[in-house]
Structure formats: structure tokens, C-alpha cells
Amino acid sequence: MNIEVSYTIKENDYLVYQLYAASKSKRVKASRRKGYVYIIFIFMMAVILSYALYKNITLPLTYLILMVVFCFSYHYFSRWYYKRHYKRYIEDIFKNNFGEKITVTFGEDFLYTSDRTGESKINLSQISEIDEINTHYFLHISSGQALIIPKEGVQNIEDIKKALDHISSKNTIQQNTNPEWKWK
Fold it and tell me: Quick one: which of 23, 38, 54, 168 is 20 to 30 A from 162 by CA?
């Protein structure tokens, strides 16, 4: 099995990977939940303190209405905030990689990659997990890195799918398919 794939990596490819990884991260999920709870706590304290201090229902009611509005809009705000954060991070760290051509060759025992910086040879047994979403494949390597393969602009996408299935079954690698994944 020797399948070669060439593609150009874009800023959005890095962003999709970062958002996907964040959506699967227990730490990020906990952080978003914690932020939600903190905001509710702060608003509740504002309601209680404003009523205790002023003995007037108008200000506490205003805080209560603001809390309800924020509760419904927090998930949108959180999604926007994390996306902005990762976008800025990617612009700082990976800005020199945008528009670069990457070539990946699926061999029998190794995965070969090459780009403008050089070549690498990855033992297939070091691939810990393969994730597929509607727009990308993410090959997680045991060192903590990941290989991003966008589906857009790749000619032989069916060959890639067959190669990944072969790699997965040969090396007992967990393969996750999330075609409906969306950043939430």
C-alpha cells in the first residue's frame, strides 16, 4: 500500500483541529462549565446584595433579568471567545505554515510526510487515534502531535479512507467518525 496525497494547509485547517481538540478536552469542557457557574453565582450575589442593601425590588429584578439573558447567551459567547482565542493562537504560532504544500505517503509500516521544512517518517504503531469529521482527518501521534488532512482539495479521498481503515485494523488504532461534528 503506497498512497500519496498532496494538499495545502490553510489557517482554517489549524483552527478546525484546535476547536475539535478543545471540544473533546475534559479540561476545556470543565473550564467552560466553571465559567458558566461563576457568572450565575456573581449575578445571584448581586441580586441578594442589592436587595439586602436597598430593600428595593427594581435593582435585584434587573440583575435577575440580566442573569437570565446571560444564561441563554453564555454558550454563544463562550463559543465565540474560544474560537477567537484559538484563531489568535494559530495566527501567532503557525502563520508561516499557511499555504504550504504537504505531501503524505501511506506506506506499509510508516507514514511519510514532507513539506518545505523537511521530511519525517512516522511509525504507524505510533498513531494513537484517528478522528474523522465531515471536513478533515486528524491522525493523533503518541508524541501529542497530530497530522491534519483536509478533505477539501484532495483528489483521492476514497484512497485515504481505505488507507486509514487499513492502518486502523492492522495496528488496532481507535478510529472515531464524527460526521456531524460542529463547534458548539
Answer: 23
